[in-house]
Amino acid sequence: MKEGVVCGDITWKDEPFAIRHVLAMQSGEEQHMVLLAPGKLDPAHASALWDDEAPVEPLFANAPVRGLLLAFDGAHGVLSADSGYHIDPEDGFTEEFGVRGEAVRIGDRLYGAFAVNKMDPSTGDSTLLQILRFDAPVYDKR
Questions:
Q1: b/e per residue, 80-113, with b = 16+ CB within 10 A?
Q2: Which residues contact 14 (CB under 8 A, 6 or more apart)?
Q3: Are 59 and 141 contacting, i.e. CB atoms less than 8 angstroms apart?
Q4: CA separation, residue 77 to residues 102, 114, 135 (Å)
Q5: pTM attached to this predicted model
Q6: Residue 118 contacts residue 129 (beta carbons within 8 Å)
Q7: In the 3-class helix/strand/coil scheme, how is 30-84 assigned residue by residue?
Q8: How far apart are CA 52 and CA 133, in angstroms?
Q9: Which of 9, 14, 36, 39 would you call most buried, defined as having the most Cβ atoms within 10 angstroms of its Cβ?
Q10: What is the pLDDT of residues 80-92, one digit of tens each?
């Protein structure tokens, strides 16, 4: 696995989703954000994720604005995510609560995994479909 690149084809919301790039940021004292996207990401424009005035298109290198943004709780050590956003070119940022991720912050790097689960609405049972792993340097927005 190359640094900052995840390779995985997943199904998200019953649609195929190719994840090829990752960007990790410490967004607060006790939070990290990880952006998983099909196209190249430009970390110089990461501030678009927290600055309402900054355009988001340059972050995605002017490709379609599409990805998954995971919110991890914790500053160092083991981090977990149970919420995030699905980013779609037409719908924008849609908050998601069925997101599952685990990561470890070691020094200036984040090593983690994102699990894709599918819930059966009739039983409430959740089935693990896929796991994507990532490794990325952490950019500090603080």
A1: ebebbbbbeeeeeeeebeebbbebebeeeebebe
A2: none
A3: no
A4: 11, 17, 14
A5: 0.84
A6: yes
A7: CEEEEEEECCCCCHHHHHHHCCCCCCCHHHHCCCCCCEEEEEEECCCEEEEEEEE
A8: 30
A9: 36
A10: 888 888 888 888 8
- The first and second tokens of residue 108, run together, are 């200036």
Q: How far apart are CA 69 and CA 40, in angstroms?
A: 15
Cβ neighbors of 113 (< 8 A, separation 6 or more) are: 101, 102, 103, 131, 132, 133, 134
- The Cβ of residue 33 has, within 10 Å, a number of other Cβ atoms equal to 23
What would the pLDDT profile of 40-54 be if each residue is shown by its tens digit? 899 889 888 888 888
Length in residues, the chain: 142
Lowest model confidence (mean pLDDT) among 1-15, 18-32, 34-48, 114-128? 1-15
Task: Look at residue 127 and give its three-state secondary structure.
Answer: strand
Closest Cα to residue 102, out of 128, 80, 132, 124?
80
